[in-house]
Amino acid sequence: MRIPCPYCGNRDSSEFSYRSDAAPVRPAADAPVAAFHDYVYLRDNPAGPISEHWYHAAGCRAWLVVTRDTRTHEISAAAIAQEFVR
Fold first, then answer.
1. pTM surpassing 0.70?
2. 2-83 is a CATH 3.30.2270.10 domain
């Protein structure tokens, strides 16, 4: 799988570390414990496009949000995490 790094260009996925689904939003500090439980442990497992956090560990060390289809592994977009807009 090739991941298009905005700084380094198309790179092999072995240069990156997968970190997590980029969709969940952290609950507010005063949220009930159940909200934190759901945030940490309950995740969707969709078949189709999903936004994910990837870290370019063997390259520019940037955090990316990569949009990948879980059925085909086709990557349709990649952006620097700080610039990603939901």
1. yes
2. yes
